[in-house]
Each structure stands twice: as structure tokens, then as C-alpha cells.
Design a protein that fits this description.
This protein is mainly α. Helix content is about 65%, strand content about 0%. It has helices at about 5-15, 55-60, 70-80, 90-100, 105-115, 120-140, 150-175, 180-230.
């Protein structure tokens, strides 16, 4: 089979030696009429790129003429819009929840992503994240009087970056981006979600651990103060 580069070279030579149009393009080697070219095609300009290279080679070898690409199929393929079979992300609501920069807001944003029928493994991790973020919020609220934890990285980077990556992934699917990019993004989302869940669980453990230490220290101090004032267990009294 003659390579496409051959026809590119032919095109360049043709432009020099002939007018920029192709005439009398009417049938392939089997005698099939190409209705995309009218009978008076001498007065019609045709783009060289509209030639079907492979079929034209076979046609010319057999003594026939150049064969045009099937314009109807070509146009239909370009104009065809593939609608996503899954529910679309409510972008406005998603951005509104993300803008709150709270654990509750991020939880609601994750629910919106989950509604878009994500791949099974990603879906499972999001379900777990939606359960764990409220636990983290509860721990922060419950022990805020005895232990102040730093969640800036969670609010500003860990959580929003993971959710935004998933949102971009959904945009890739809607735009029909190549499978390689989609598959690579899926892996990045999985890694990000796994790391985020580890961070959330570690932060919950940290809060309970240090809150427990603080509570025990306060209990000891109270016991010591009351002992100094004579308020001790009766069995230790003289």
C-alpha cells in the first residue's frame, strides 16, 4: 500500500503543475457513482484532503479515477455528539460547597461527585471518605476546649485538590479525552483518595490521643489540688 506521504508529495507537485482543483471525480474501481461530486464537477473545487488515498490507489491501478471520501459519513462522525450516560456533575453546587472551606462543605461536594457514578473502586473510596469526614469534624468539635489541631492543610490542599482532580476527570469523560489520559487520571484519583483517607484517620487518632493526654493531665492536677485541700479518699485520712 502506498504511504500517505506519497500522496502529500503528489499534492505538492500537483499544486505547482495544475490548478488547485480536481475534476471528473465520479466513480471508484467498481463503478460506484460518488454522488458527493456533481456531473459538472469541472467547475467545482475539491479539497485534496477529501480524497480517499487507499481507495484511490486501487482505483488508479485498475484504470479508474480518484475516489472521494464518503462525505456524509465523515460529516456525521464530526457532528455526532456523545451524551454521557451517567448523571452530570452539578458544577454550580459543587463550586459553592467547595467555596465554604469546611469539612461539612467538602462532604457535600464529595456527595455530588459520588452522584456521577464514578468507577467502582473510586466510588468505594468516596463512600468511605463521606463517612470519615464527619467523624473528623466531630472530634474537632468535641475536644476543641482541650486540644487545638491544625487543619489548614486539609482545608486548603488535601481535600480540595482531591475533589477538584475528580471533577477534572469527569470533564475529561464528557469531552471524550483519550483513554490513556482518563486511565492515568483514575490512578491519580485513587492514590489521592487513599492518601487522604490515611491523613483523615491519622488526624482523628491524633485528636483523641492528645485530648486524652490533656484530659488525664487535668484530672491529675485536680486530684492533686483537692488532696492539698484535704479532700482525699477517707481510707487515706489519718
Amino acid at each position: 500500500m502506498i504511504e500517505k506521504q506519497f500522496w502529500i508529495n503528489v499534492k505538492e507537485a500537483w499544486i505547482v503543475s495544475a490548478q488547485t482543483k480536481i475534476t471528473n471525480v465520479h466513480a471508484d474501481s467498481e463503478g460506484t457513482k460518488d454522488f458527493s461530486v456533481p456531473d459538472d464537477s469541472e467547475d467545482m473545487e475539491v479539497s485534496f484532503d477529501d480524497i480517499d488515498f487507499d481507495r484511490s490507489v486501487e482505483s488508479v491501478i485498475s484504470g479508474g479515477d480518484f475516489v472521494m471520501k464518503d462525505r456524509q459519513d465523515h460529516v456525521a462522525a464530526k457532528e455526532q455528539i456523545v451524551a454521557p450516560s451517567r448523571p452530570a456533575l452539578d458544577t454550580a453546587a459543587f463550586e459553592q460547597k467547595m467555596g465554604q472551606r469546611t469539612l461539612q462543605g467538602y462532604t457535600e461536594a464529595a456527595r455530588l461527585l459520588l452522584h456521577c457514578e464514578l468507577p467502582e473502586e473510586i466510588n468505594g473510596l468516596y463512600e468511605e471518605l463521606i463517612l470519615r469526614l464527619p467523624v473528623l469534624q466531630d472530634a474537632v468539635t468535641k475536644f476543641e476546649g482541650v486540644y487545638q489541631t491544625d487543619l489548614d492543610q486539609f482545608y486548603d490542599y488535601y481535600i480540595p485538590e482531591t475533589l477538584q482532580l475528580t471533577s477534572a476527570y469527569l470533564e475529561y469523560l464528557d469531552a471524550g479525552i483519550g483513554k490513556d489520559i482518563v486511565n492515568e487520571t483514575e490512578k491519580e484519583i485513587l492514590d489521592a483518595l487513599k492518601q487522604l483517607l490515611i491523613a483523615v484517620n491519622d488526624k482523628v487518632d491524633e485528636i483523641y490521643k492528645f485530648a486524652s493526654i490533656e484530659i488525664k493531665a487535668k484530672a491529675k492536677a485536680l486530684e492533686s489540688l483537692m488532696s492539698q485541700d484535704g479532700y482525699v479518699d477517707s481510707k487515706f485520712k489519718l
